[in-house]
Amino acid sequence: MANRKHQPATAARQTKAHAQRQAKAHAKVEARRQQDIDRVNALPITHRHAAGIDIGGSSHWVCVGFTQDENPQLIRALPGHTAGLQQIVAFLREHPVSTVAMEATGIYWVPLYELLQSEGFEVLLVDPSYTKQVQGRPTTDKRDAQWIYRLHAVGLLAGAFRPDDKTCPLRSYLRQRAKLIRYGGQHVPHMHKALEQRNLKLMTVRSDHDFPNSLRNNSSALTFPSSVKRTDFALLTGLLM
Q1: Separation between Cα atoms, residue 179 and residue 199, nearest integer Å
Q2: What's the whole-model pTM score?
Q3: Which position has the higher pLDDT, 216 or 180?
Q4: Could you tell me which of 2, 123, 157, 163 has the fewest CB atoms within 10 Å of its CB?
Q5: CA pair distance 227, 65, nearest whole angstrom
């Protein structure tokens, strides 16, 4: 009975000790992160007219300066639609911003990147791994924008490669072509399976990688089951052209 009475007290002490260890570890991590932030802030400013943008799906955080107090005039969250992008340009115009850094997040950065370039801003498209290499990065979108601004202001960010306006459409076409070829190759086994289910032994006649040509060139050598009409097979061959 005495041991049972002491069990709740022991569990409470263990829970309290665990919470204290967690709090101490969290405080140690925060102190180390603050030291890293202070080292970045101590670096000399190389881009005095800089801005940092944290790209999001529905909204973008834009930071044009940093102070210890939360100054809403230096950082804002603006919508990601077309009118919101125009607001971002107007917000940057209100402040003497000439160079902007943003992370390449998904495809959400493309409209804003192209708009800022057309408006005459120097835009640095930054790989997200670059901003993570410097210790001290925060975890919220708002503080991410401030962090990108700090790194860009002190010259710690490098822009990723971005082709010119004539090369970008060509690269998109080539990527789309490669994607369609890859998708087509993935469907060839499905067509093989569908033909086998109809007892069309195409692979016993000819086994090569040019599946549509095999269908067209060897259709006369195939024996069609009663459930498959030759006209249906010709239609399938035409669809594969």
Answers
A1: 31
A2: 0.62
A3: 180
A4: 2
A5: 73
Is 160 inside any structural domain?
no
Distance CA 151, CA 147 (A): 6
90 and 148, same domain (yes or no): yes
Please tell me the distance from the alpha carbon of residue 84 to that of residue 114, in angstroms, as a whole number.
14
Please answer whether residues 136 and 37 qualify as being in contact, where contact means their C-beta atoms are separated by less than 8 angstroms: yes
Q: Is the domain of 54 the same as that of 97? A: yes
Distance CA 215, CA 198 (A): 14
The answer to whether residue 159 sits within a structural domain is no
What is the β-pairing status of strands 99-103 and 75-79?
A: unpaired
Can you tell me the distance from the alpha carbon of 141 to that of 54, in angstroms, rounded to the nearest whole number? Answer: 6
Containing domain of residue 202, as a range?
167-239
Per DSSP, the three-state class of 2 is helix
**Residue 1 gets which letter from DSSP?**
-
- Whose CA is closest to 202, among 219, 186, 185, 188? 219
pLDDT tens digits, 124-167: 998 877 666 666 566 677 788 888 998 899 888 888 888 887 88
The answer to whether 78 touches 56, Cβ cutoff 8 Å, is no
Same domain, 34 and 68: no
78 and 135 both lie in a single domain: yes
